[in-house]
Amino acid sequence: MLLRVLFGREQKYVRLSDLTFEAFMREVCLKFNISEDRQLNMKVYDQSDTEVDAEVFEEILKESPGTFRIMLGNEELGASLSSSSSAASEDTVILNFIKCDPPGEAATAEGSQPKRPCRVNYEAKALIEKILTTKPGGERIMQEYARTKSLTDATRRQMINILAAEMTETHGTSPPKSVRVMYAQGIVALFPYLEDPYAPHGYEHYYDPESGSGYLAWRLKTIQRKSAEERGASVSKSPKVGGPGHGRRRPVTAEKELSDESVEAAIAVLKHSADEETVREKMKATFVYRHSMVNDEKKATDVFLVFPRFLDTPGLIEQDFRLLFGEATANKFLESWPTNLKAKVIKESHGLIPTTELLDLMRSAESAAGAENGWDSDMSAILLLLHLLPPSAQGRKRPGKMSASQAVDHVIRFLKAGNSVQQHLDNIAQSSQPYLLAQGPTRSSIHTFFIVIDKHALPCKATGSVGALDELFKAHYVFCTSYSPSLTNFFTFLQTTIYNIDIGETKETPRVAELRARMLR
User: Which listed residue, of 181, 331, 451, 452, carries a Cα 20 to 30 Å from 143's Cα?
Assistant: First the structure.
């Protein structure tokens, strides 16, 4: 490892093969011919002007310390791991240090958020480390992370309970925001693989000071509620929001907006033409008008009356989505699922509490042919993702929390070949949130997919499970409809983590951010 060192007016590289404090000091002395009698006066300081000694040197070195300042009498040295520098004075080099991902991580995918500069908060890290090493169960948490570079859900809950208990014991049941932030910073500083690479600071799924959400915040609210109940008081809850269905800006990729007369003429052609090329051309020409229409609550319900070709021409949802977001965004799920996303979903599902249904899905997902009575391999893995991102509780006044197994019907339903699609539509309740209707002889052998929305069945262009789910996700944006409450975590994860849509603008639960941190590491 090369360290850049400045002593007086002379700057040199120092090669360090042994990452110890003694070796560093020895190599600096050799490089700059510092005599033995002066070595006793050498002291090392980090960028916060905190003295660094042999006990912590190696750890700080690995965590990207920014700038070392080494004092030798009235002379000053500056050392850094960075290859770029700017002089703050004749004998000091101040260097910015970039560390965006845990060591050894690949760069984020094209189109994702740019890497951010960040520094380890050593005070916060030391605080969390001290708590976990002195509280019952804390050592096991650190050992699990050291072994797996991750924490299971159960271990994460235990860690949050320990930290929240310590926080309230020290600072009361309503600790200051700065304390909550420090604890969240300390978690990702001590456990860098738990950092969310898409969040501004990386720790927001533990505590987000902007929204007051996160695992720590939730645990504190539970403690506060129990404390209030003991006093006979009530605690208000913040409302939940999410989904794509409200007032999206006009797309930048759209064609030039037509005059009212041209739009009316194109719509008239669409209502009567059966030629697919003509249909696609006129649908593209009327996209801006249609986009405004679905964003108008009074007009949105008429979209299938005005544009009936959605009901018999596959591929129109895909075309509108590409006009809305562009080619790169439209291709993201289909590109990432077979290359790494599916395998990571299956791997993460092994950490869930096993149930009969979960085990059946895992067997089907890991089998190329799928199980005899189950879905095919890809759909089984997609439903495993739903189990990894189960529905959130909807509040006390609403029905109890829905299980992932119950939420499956909000993603896909099976219709045996030969049965009437129209009869299926007649038997369902009115719903604006789309779901997949899969028709075939068995669940593992589907030959046709439909997107059911507003009691209409729109034929999918895709004949496979991955492409069908891709179209289902895109239908939410094309028709400006919010996610089903039971699927908000599921679709929000796809939206931000895979399609990279509205990163930082969409409210996410800590579970979504936590899974992203695990799967993108």
Answer: 181
12 vs 23, 74, 93, 317, CA distance in Å? 16, 20, 12, 61
Read off the tokens for 94. 């101040």
DSSP letter for 92, please.
Answer: E
Decide if 439 contacts 475 (C-beta within 8 A): no
Identify the bridge partners of residue 171 per DSSP, sorted by sequence position.
none
List the one residue out of 63, 161, 166 whose CA is nearest residue 121: 63
Please compute, for residue 10, the number of CA atoms within 13 A of its CA located in the half-sphere on the CB side: 10
**Residue pLDDT, tens place only, 32-82:** 777 766 777 777 766 555 677 777 777 766 665 455 666 665 444 444 444
Two tokens, residue 392: 């959130």
Structure tokens at 77: 């040295």
178 CB neighbour count, 10 Å cutoff = 10
- Give how far the C-alpha of residue 27 lies from the chain's centroid of Cα atoms, to the nearest Å: 43
- pLDDT of 62 reads 65
Which residues, other chains included, contact 161 with Cβ-Cβ below 8 Å and sequence gap of 6+? Answer: 219
Residue closest to 375 by CA, chosen among 308, 307, 449, 442: 442
**Cα 168 to chain centroid, rounded:** 29
Q: How far apart are CA 319 and CA 314, in angstroms?
A: 10
Q: Taking the CA atoms of the chain, what radius of gyration do you get in angstroms? A: 28
Hey, which residues does 14 pair with through a beta bridge?
3
Residue with tokens 């929305």: 453
**DSSP H or E run through 3:** strand 2-7
Tokens for 160, please give them: 């949050």
Contacts of 256 (CB under 8 A, 6+ apart): none
Distance CA 194, CA 520 (A): 10
For residues 485, 490, 496, 500, the Cα torsion angle rounded to the nearest 10 degrees is -120
Q: Is the pLDDT of residue 176 over 80?
A: yes
Q: Is residue 476's pLDDT more than 80?
A: yes
Pairwise CA distance, residues 381 & 344, whole Å: 10
Cα separation, 155 vs 321, whole angstroms: 40
Q: Which band of pLDDT confidence, cut at 50, 70 and 90, is reported for residue 225?
A: confident
0.85 exceeded by pTM: no
Judge whether 272 and 282 are in contact, CB under 8 Å: no
Closest CA to 479 of 326, 242, 296, 251: 296
For residues 476 and 71, what is the distance between their CA atoms, to the nearest angstrom? 61
